[in-house]
């Protein structure tokens, strides 16, 4: 039977009338039961519990020793040095890296080549080699001086006296870090729509101001996740300076276990601290990302506590949880 | 609103384009374009895509550097300085000052997504040192009110519709009190139902006495507001005159062909 316009109108009218009656509720939508998801969550929790029990219950880990050394002065001082070194290297590395990235993107072929050359050298040699090189710089250049080239020297100092292990570590790590940071920042700047720079130019904004006010804040969205990655990498990467006898976290526990041979528990002490700091940094990264996400969408991403609450709510709805909320068939 | 907008622009400036050449990768985009725009008039530039319309507009505020020829706005050479029989490029800072006297409205708005609508409009007067922050924000509020967005000052650009974003972009261009405003296909990125709100804001500016150069495909709008219509073909001005002449009685076959397709 062909549907005439009057049929349609009748149907609509009927529906509308039906809908208007007060006791006819709109039909509820029951969410799909995600059995697979619940089962896999249960299985994952079970495996996690088993692993946790085996680790905690295994006396070979010597958890009492771990507890004993976790907050000793030597370990805490090592932790402090690791944190300080990470902070300094990260800040200096990114400052230098930003300069390098801007040079690399400049109009001048001279500056572009210089920046490229720097990144090429420092990315193509192992960090350990670079550190050992700086550590032995005294052998290559015994004295550092200030003077007129080919003319009289105004002032000079022995390189060995100038560069202690910690300063060597800072220089070595920073130069290496900046080469990578340069690429991260450059990638971030390139990710910003060129129309932004053009609009800023059309408004009469200078290059530096355009970069600082318009381009970099937008580039931060793609810089932050990679920079967070680098920060965590640097935190653990600073443990390489133990070869220079710098008393960082790892070197501090090494000194202890070289005396008492409690290798495993002391490595666990260092590990627990690295995990703790990394956790804090990851959470902080999330908030920084949230800050730079302003204006990019209609809503902001969830904070970690909000995300956790949603996940816990989902767990609550597992088959093990109360079922009363589910409508009966 | 008309009187209010008139008060916004300092003085309408004349534009003169003289024998401008520009090519990209060996392809000639502008091939000796000369054009005179009287102060306070509205010029609509028409032409097929690839005819050099946008490039011409971008040459006017030195976003593109011409290889030969010169542009002057308000009697001042743009981007260059005369040195005998040659033109030398100006320092960046001088070019930026010149640009700040020429408003530019982009096809894709190019609003700054990380700044609120208010800061988008207030940014340039503050950055160029023309106004202290508080005054720039007051001006921005006033201008946003004029383009009908007085209630959205705290929003971010991506929370607005395309038409609203383009109106913010126009307010942003007005914040520098330019003597000339250039529009590069201001409605081409908009949904059809949003075109009208942007055109009506431009129309208000047109009656307000600012010099406007508009690249557009809206022929009806051109007929309504233009004092002069310029038709570009392959980087040359092939026809120029009042809309009644160019749009209704085109002489050049290319113009006729174009209009028969567009209308």
TrEMBL record, chain A:
Biased composition (Basic and acidic residues): 7-23
Residue ranges of the region described as Disordered: 1-27
Boundaries of every ABC transmembrane type-1 domain copy: 79-285
Membrane topology according to the record: Multi-pass membrane protein
The entry's keywords: Amino-acid transport, Cell membrane, Membrane, Transmembrane, Transmembrane helix, Transport
InterPro entries: AA_ABC_transptr_permease_3TM, ArtM/GltK/GlnP/TcyL/YhdX-like, MetI-like, MetI-like_sf
Transmembrane segments: 39-56, 76-103, 115-137, 261-284
Chief site of localization: membrane
Record localization: Cell membrane
Recorded family membership: Belongs to the binding-protein-dependent transport system permease family.
Full protein name: Amino acid ABC transporter, permease protein
Species assigned in the record: Streptomyces cirratus
TrEMBL record, chain B:
CDD domains: ABC_HisP_GlnQ
Subcellular location as annotated: Cell membrane
Highest taxon of source: Bacteria
Keyword Hydrolase in record: no
Entry-linked Gene3D superfamilies: P-loop containing nucleotide triphosphate hydrolases (3.40.50.300)
Record's bilayer topology term: Peripheral membrane protein
Metal-binding recorded as keyword: no
Domain ABC transporter per the UniProt entry, residue ranges: 15-259
SUPFAM superfamilies recorded: P-loop containing nucleoside triphosphate hydrolases (SSF52540)
Transmembrane feature ranges: none
PROSITE patterns for the chain: ABC_TRANSPORTER_1 (PS00211), ABC_TRANSPORTER_2 (PS50893)
Protein family membership: Belongs to the ABC transporter superfamily.
UniProt protein name: ABC transporter domain-containing protein
Native organism: Streptomyces cirratus
């Amino acid at each position: 039977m062909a549907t005439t316009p009057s049929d349609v109108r009748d149907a609509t009218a009927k529906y509308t009338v039906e809908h208007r009656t007060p006791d006819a509720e709109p039909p509820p939508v029951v969410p799909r039961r995600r059995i697979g998801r619940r089962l896999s969550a249960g299985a994952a929790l079970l495996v996690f519990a088993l692993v946790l029990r085996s680790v905690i219950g295994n006396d070979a880990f010597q958890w009492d020793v771990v507890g004993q050394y976790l907050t000793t002065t030597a370990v805490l001082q090592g932790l402090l040095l690791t944190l300080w070194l990470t902070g300094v290297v990260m800040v200096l590395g990114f400052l230098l890296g930003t300069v390098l990235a801007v040079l690399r993107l400049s109009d001048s072929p001279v500056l572009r080549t210089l920046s490229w050359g720097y990144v090429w050298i420092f990315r193509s040699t192992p960090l350990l080699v670079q550190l050992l090189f700086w550590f032995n710089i005294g052998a290559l250049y015994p004295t550092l001086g200030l003077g007129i080239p080919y003319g009289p020297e105004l002032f000079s100092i022995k390189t060995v006296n100038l560069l202690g292990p910690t300063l060597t570590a800072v220089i070595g790590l920073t130069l290496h870090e900046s080469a990578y940071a340069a690429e991260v920042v450059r990638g971030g700047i390139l990710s910003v729509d060129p129309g932004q720079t053009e609009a800023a130019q059309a408004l009469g904004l200078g290059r530096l101001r355009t970069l600082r006010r318009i381009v970099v804040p937008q580039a931060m969205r793609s810089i932050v996740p990679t920079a967070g990655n680098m920060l965590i990498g640097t935190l653990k990467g600073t443990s390489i300076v133990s070869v220079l006898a710098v008393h960082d976290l790892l070197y501090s526990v090494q000194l202890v276990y070289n005396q008492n041979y409690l290798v495993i528990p002391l490595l666990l002490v260092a590990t627990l601290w690295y995990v703790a700091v990394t956790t804090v940094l990851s959470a902080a990264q999330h908030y920084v990302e949230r800050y730079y996400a302003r204006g990019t969408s209609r809503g902001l991403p969830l904070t970690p506590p909000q995300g956790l609450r949603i996940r816990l709510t989902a767990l609550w709805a597992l088959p093990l949880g109360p079922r009363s909320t589910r409508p009966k068939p | 609103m008309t009187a209010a907008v008139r008060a916004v622009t300092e003085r309408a400036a004349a534009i003169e384009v003289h024998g401008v050449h520009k090519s990209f990768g060996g392809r000639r985009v502008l091939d000796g374009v000369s054009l005179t725009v009287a102060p306070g008039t509205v010029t609509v530039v028409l032409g097929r895509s690839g005819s050099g319309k946008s490039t011409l507009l971008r040459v006017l505020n030195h976003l593109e550097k011409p290889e030969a020829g010169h542009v002057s706005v308000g009697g001042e050479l743009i981007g260059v300085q005369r040195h005998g029989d040659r033109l030398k490029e100006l320092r960046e800072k001088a070019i930026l000052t010149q640009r700040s006297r020429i408003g530019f409205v982009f096809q894709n708005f190019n609003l700054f997504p990380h700044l609120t609508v208010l800061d988008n409009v207030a940014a340039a007067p503050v950055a160029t040192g023309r106004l202290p922050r508080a005054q720039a924000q007051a001006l921005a509020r006033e201008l946003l009110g004029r383009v009908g967005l007085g209630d959205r000052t705290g929003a971010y650009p991506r929370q607005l519709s395309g038409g609203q974003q383009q109106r913010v972009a126009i307010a942003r261009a007005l914040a520098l009190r330019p003597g000339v405003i250039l529009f590069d296909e201001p409605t081409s990125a908009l949904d059809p139902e949003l075109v009208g709100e942007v055109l009506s804001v431009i129309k208000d500016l047109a009656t307000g006495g600012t010099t406007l150069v508009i690249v557009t495909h809206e022929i009806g709008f051109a007929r309504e507001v233009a004092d002069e219509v310029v038709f570009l073909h392959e980087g040359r001005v092939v026809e120029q005159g009042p809309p009644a002449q160019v749009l209704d009685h085109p002489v050049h076959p290319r113009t006729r062909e174009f209009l028969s397709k567009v209308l």
